[in-house]
Design a protein that fits this description.
The protein has 544 residues and is an alpha/beta fold. It is built from 17 helices and 27 strands.
């Protein structure tokens, strides 16, 4: 580890931000505003409430919640008491949530009773029928989730077997400040603080473990991109992804910037907030920038406050969108990253040429090394030659939770993370992300493991075989197409197969297209040639 990296915890950094910035505004949401002092105060209340509820150091606290101030307070609160914080994707449904809760050994689940049309509590009750008969809400016993001890609900209503978040906070108010201070002092900065589930590069979702070094990646971003205390960051990316957490709350406490938080992405509301809050920074993927620029109100909105944005470039299909952003919205900086690396580990520079902004993926941040290798041999390839991107640095994951074999596959003995992504490096060490070697899709910025979707579709009696590939989409960049070989004597429509998936996996994982096929293009050893299948789908669907 480089000598310049300070060993400090996330909780201590929040305290330091409160000392530095005090009454300066830190957060705005839904017409309400919080200073840095107030964010610290509310986070301390959350921390004491979790202690009073019985959460011990090292236990995993899962949060299934859309972007809200309580999300930030719970995150900092868990970090301050040495707990491991697990944000659950709010687009997950029964099968996804069941897997994550069980595999993570979560002892605590915090969630709303419902949000919009989604009845979160009903889903959890189906998964945990013992809730209805639980007499002690601090000592839940579930056959399916043996580690789970408590379910906490953000609601004014009380539900059997659960505790209300407001009551948890009230119980914590009686806890002496000294007890929280003692818990916070005992935290090892190298201890796991965050557990994020991602489809990663191979296989079903895996829990990526990170320690408090996440902060230093945020500091590196701050320096590379020139984030200042007078910046206003519009945050509509979900906080359950590292990009949202990193560019929002973590960036705020290392820089003093103000975060304007949106519960979810809505281009109309985003445009309104850019003008009303004088936002200086935005970030996202093609779909987010397209949504802003193609909205009917875009031409009437004052976006002159925007200094820059973080917009992923590299893929050829992204180039027209990124060029349009430079022309009509604001200059952006590109980058490359993944959850296993602690979000982006390469970034461009604010003074990059337009061509680099629109086609490249930046340069390694301080403390990181990149190399491009031939994936079959591991030999380093020459500049300008495509190969697999390997990364090594201070902010890499500690590993996949309870998956030592998968961890060993991803990180070699010399500490290099084999990303499974294809890239090319120029002589000046600027890289360009070209796509994925392995069987992953990127749907509107969300990782989708084709194998997971295939496994679910194979449960349908009318499906003999299925292969899922990514095809281009003007809004989401890429969507899933399921190529189905029907079971002889069985019939099913495309709508029936899609209905089989609904409510069981996140909506972004559900294929947008279904094609019924008689055979697959295969290699001499019988392996499906998905690149050829993708070409067939593109042609059959009339895509470009």
């Amino acid at each position: 580890m480089s000598a310049w990296i300070e060993k400090i915890t996330i909780g201590a950094t929040l305290d330091r931000a409160a000392e530095r910035f005090g009454l300066r505004e830190a957060l705005a949401f839904g017409g309400r505003r919080w200073s840095f002092d107030q964010v610290q105060l509310e986070s301390n209340r959350a921390a004491r409430g979790l202690i009073a509820s019985g959460v011990e150091p090292g236990e995993t606290v899962a949060l299934w919640l859309t972007n809200r101030p309580e999300w930030i307070q719970a995150f900092f609160g868990a970090a301050k008491i040495g707990a491991v914080f697990l944000p659950i994707n709010t687009r997950f449904r029964t099968t996804d949530v069941e897997y994550v809760l069980r595999q993570s050994d979560s002892t605590t689940l915090i969630l709303p009773d419902r949000s919009g049309p989604i009845d979160y509590l009903a889903i959890v009750r189906d998964l945990i029928p013992e809730l209805r008969s639980c007499r002690d809400p601090n000592d839940l016993r579930s056959a399916a989730f043996p580690a789970l001890r408590r379910v906490i609900v953000l609601s004014e209503s009380a539900y059997p077997g659960t505790r209300r978040w407001k009551d948890v906070l009230a119980a914590g108010d009686a806890l002496p400040d000294q007890e929280l201070a003692a818990r916070q002092r005992a935290i090892d900065p190298d201890a796991t603080v965050l557990l994020m589930y991602t489809s990663g590069t191979t296989g079903f979702p895996k829990g990526v473990m990170h320690n408090h070094d996440l902060l230093h990646n945020a500091s590196a971003h701050q320096n590379r991109m020139g984030v200042r205390a007078d910046d206003v960051i519009l945050t509509y990316l979900p906080l359950f992804h590292l990009a949202g957490l990193h560019q929002g709350p973590l960036m705020s406490i290392v820089s003093g910037a103000r975060v304007v938080l949106m519960e979810q992405y809505d281009p109309s509301e985003a445009l309104r907030l850019i003008a009303a809050e004088r936002a200086t920074r935005i970030q996202g993927f093609d779909a987010h920038f397209l949504g802003l620029m193609e909205h009917p109100q875009f031409g009437e909105t004052d976006t002159s406050s925007l200094r820059t944005g973080l917009q992923v470039a590299g893929l050829a299909r992204s180039e027209p969108v990124v060029r349009r952003t430079q022309a009509v919205l604001c200059p952006t900086v590109s980058g490359y990253g993944m959850t296993e690396l602690g979000v982006a580990v390469s970034l461009g520079f604010p003074d990059d040429s337009d061509n680099d902004r629109c086609t490249m993926s930046g340069v390694a941040l301080p403390g990181w090394e990149f190399k491009i290798v031939e994936p079959d041999t591991g030999e380093i390839v020459s500049h300008g030659t495509p190969g697999e991107l390997c990364c090594r640095g201070y902010g890499m994951m500690q590993g996949y939770y309870k998956e030592p074999e998968e961890t060993a596959k991803a990180i070699d003995a010399e500490g290099w993370m084999h990303t499974g992504d294809m890239a090319v490096m120029r002589d000046d060490e600027t890289i360009r992300f070209l796509g994925r070697y392995k069987d992953m899709l990127k749907v509107g910025g969300e990782n989708v493991d084709a194998a997971e979707v295939e496994a679910l579709l194979l449960e349908h009696p009318a499906v003999q075989q299925v292969a899922v590939v990514g095809v281009s989409d003007t809004q989401l960049t890429e969507v899933a197409c399921a190529c189905v070989l029907p079971e002889p004597g069985q019939t099913a429509t495309a709508d029936e197969l899609l209905e089989h998936c609904r409510g069981r996996i996140a909506s972004f994982k559900i294929p947008r297209h279904v094609l019924f096929v008689d055979e697959y293009p295969v290699t001499s050893t019988g392996k499906v040639q998905k690149y050829k299948l993708r070409e067939i789908c593109t042609r059959e669907l009339g895509l470009t």
